[in-house]
Each structure stands twice: as structure tokens, then as C-alpha cells.
């Protein structure tokens, strides 16, 4: 046992020296910038090189890109590959220069040539190396055996460089990539390099919308439709804000627009700001209501889905993967999309405000753009809102939520009657009202949207009328919360399902 103890001490000293050496080298590496090979990366290459904290190499269907990026963009699982898709990062000078994708990246079987016979001198070297390795392993096992200390858990900050598996069959969809890269089904989004790689492989097909923010295009990526929001140069702060929120906050929810990627790309010598999301062919709620009418049950489920999305935004989640509370600040029918199943999802977080209770910090961003005047709450119009209190922003969302419900209810058929689509306060202000015009109507004259008598003849619509009125109180603190709206509508939905099933049984 004396020899074992001596061997253990020697190995322990050796391991300590190695760990200290690695720690010192890591500290030095953290303090310096890497020189990386740079190819096909527009706008950042200078004479074929760039400097950053990490070097990277990507390969997508034969198109290669090499470059660098900073620590603030480092995401989990920086290395991985699918069929036709490969991304890898490294931390040595010009370590990406000779990187290539795996030989079977397109799904071909790998072929390995038979090994050449070893010379006698090589047999001696290999045997010596195997013997030394065996002794080292045995010594290390003894060291662990007598150390009596638990194994160190993996540091969550350690870089995960495990290659993701290649799925069999067809090329992966972005849904497949989400499953591989996003942890626990509700992570913060795709890794930065994956976002860049995906964005640069998208083909724009048709423009499906224009606004003051820029344009929305339907694009395709590996055969699937995606929505590409291209921001105008004057609205770049909204792009920065949405990118920041989507990349740092858990927003995976059925009633929040699904984020895929964000990227800056060059076109015709100008920079474009792209935000890539799930594509919903029915368009915005505003567009949908122009040509579609609803029955009361569909109206209820549509309103409930919007309320569910707003509850998810407003709610702070305290867990291992935290989510701060978020107020939207520009909720309106144009910023809500309609899904095939008749539910809605909330989009456009360019004006969002973030709050965390732990630090009681309020992050309002630095976007000079204000919300849409037609949907502004009284306290915003008369400038009495407490801008340093997060609850104030949530209360303005509730005001706007009531107006969205009003828009949906107008297009709901009751007793064979349905009204044409109109925006809120259409009968009181012009098509593009000024701040002062809205202030006079809402704050001075205290008008509220008119509600048709037919709504009171149906239990679902009459309950919705009551909710709307409680969203439009002049006093912000008297308004309902998003959670209260959701619970009321959920109970109404359950009651209507029960009544419907009872009618069917009677029949």
C-alpha cells in the first residue's frame, strides 16, 4: 500500500499541475482576442482575417463561411451537424482555417481505406504508449478510490461541443433543429451561429406586408415557409430590441410568435436587418377580420388565445431558466397573427418593457418610437402615466386588449347580424389621428367604443362586453389583469363546451 500511496501522491501532484496550467492558459485566452480566418463573411473581413473571442466555420449545402464572433454571442452547443448542415467553433488562432464538414455530411456512407501494416519500430512505440496509458489509468482510478470526494458536476458555463446527431431520412426542418438546439423545449432560442447560418440560406419569395417598420416577406428555408421581417433603417432600434428579447428571454409559447433567427445581411451595398419567425398564412388579425366573420364560440377562443399570450408576457417566471415580466406597449390587431387553428399569437416586441422583481429593475430600452395613438390608454395620452412603475405599462396593455376584443366582437355573428370591420374610435377620429385628437376623444370627452345591442343577447358576447368595459376604466388600477381576463374567458369556454355537449346529448 505504501507504493500505491506514493503513486497516488505523484499522480495528484501531476493532476494539480496540469489543472493549474490549463487554468492559467484559459485565463490568458480569455484576456486576448483570437486571430481567425475570415471568408465569405460580408462586412467583417479585413485581408482575410478578423479578431474575436471565438473562431467559427459553417457549411450549408456546399456553401462555406469562416469568421469570428464575440463572447456576447456565445450560445450553447456551438458545434453540431445535420445532413447538409454543419457548424463548429474553436479557440485557437486561425483554428478554423482548415476546418471541413464530416465526410458523411450529405448522408453518404463513409469509406475508410484499409490500414497499412505497422513497421516493427511502430509496434514498439504503440506498445509502450499503451502500457503507459494503462498505468496512468490505473493510477488515476486508485487516486479516485482513496480520495473519497464526490465528482465535480459539470459547470453550466462549460462549452458543450458534443456533435448533435444526424437524423435519418429527409433534410431537417427548422422544427428538427429547434428540438436539437433548444433545451427543455422552452429555451432562449437557437445558437447565434445557427441563426446566422439559417438566415443566410433563406430565399425571399413574396412580400406579404408593408408598414412604417419596413416589410414582411414570405421566405423559404429547406422547403419550409418562414416569415422574414425586414426593418427599415429608421426603425433599427426595434430590430435590436426584438433580437435582444428573443435571444435572452424564454418566450416559447403557443400564443407568442415563434422566433427562428435574427441577422444583419448585406444587399445592394446596404445593410438589411432581418427577423425570421414562423410563417402564418392567414396574416394579422387586422387582415383576417377584413374578410372573415366568426361565430360566438370562435370569437371566445380567439380572445382567450390573445389573453393567454399576454399573460405569458406579463408573468415573471422564477426558476432555473428565468423569464422576466414583459409589457408589450404596442398591442393591436396588426401586431397579432392568426394561426390555422383559429388561435392567435402576439408579435412585434420592438417596444417591450422588461422587469425583474429580484433587482426591481425596469428596462425600457432606448427606442424613441412610441406606440400606436389609436390604442393609447388615457394615462398615456394625458401624460399622467408613472413611467418608473412597471405595473403602469401592463395596465396600458389591458386597455389595448379591450380594444382588440372589441374589433373581434364586431365581426361575430349574433342573430344573423354582423358589423363590418372598423378600427377602434373609427366614428370619432380620422384614419390617422393625431395625439391631440385622441386625447380629446378619450381623456376630455371620455368616449369609449360603441357596443351593438345584439352582443347582449348571447351569453358569451355579453360576458365579453363586461370584460371590455372593465378594461377601459379611466383609472388604470381599476382595470382587470391579464390573468383575471384569461381565467374568466377560460371558465366561459368550459361552460360553453359543457352546454354544447349537453345539447348534443339531449338530441
From TrEMBL:
Domain GS positions: 172-201
Cofactor: Mn(2+); Mg(2+)
Membrane topology: Single-pass type I membrane protein
Reaction(s) the record says it catalyses: L-seryl-[receptor-protein] + ATP = O-phospho-L-seryl-[receptor-protein] + ADP + H(+); L-threonyl-[receptor-protein] + ATP = O-phospho-L-threonyl-[receptor-protein] + ADP + H(+)
Residues given in the record as ATP binding sites: 229
A Pfam family the protein falls into: PK_Tyr_Ser-Thr
Annotated PROSITE patterns: GS, PROTEIN_KINASE_ATP, PROTEIN_KINASE_DOM, PROTEIN_KINASE_ST
Keyword hit for ATP-binding: yes
Keyword Metal-binding: yes
BP-aspect Gene Ontology terms: angiogenesis; artery morphogenesis; blood vessel diameter maintenance; blood vessel endothelial cell migration; BMP signaling pathway; cell differentiation; cellular response to growth factor stimulus; determination of ventral identity
Enzyme Commission number(s) from the entry: 2.7.11.30
CDD domains recorded: TFP_LU_ECD_ALK1 (cd23534)
Single GO MF annotation: metal ion binding
Main enzyme class: transferase
Domain of life: Eukaryota
TM spans (from-to): 122-144
Cellular-component GO terms for this entry: BMP receptor complex; plasma membrane
Signal sequence interval, chain numbering: 1-23
Keywords, comma-separated and alphabetical: ATP-binding, Glycoprotein, Kinase, Magnesium, Manganese, Membrane, Metal-binding, Nucleotide-binding, Receptor, Serine/threonine-protein kinase, Signal, Transferase, Transmembrane, Transmembrane helix
Subcellular location: Membrane
PANTHER family attached to this UniProt entry: SERINE_THREONINE-PROTEIN KINASE RECEPTOR R3 (PTHR23255:SF66), TRANSFORMING GROWTH FACTOR-BETA RECEPTOR TYPE I AND II (PTHR23255)
Family: Belongs to the protein kinase superfamily. TKL Ser/Thr protein kinase family. TGFB receptor subfamily.
Designated name of the protein: receptor protein serine/threonine kinase
Originating gene: acvrl1
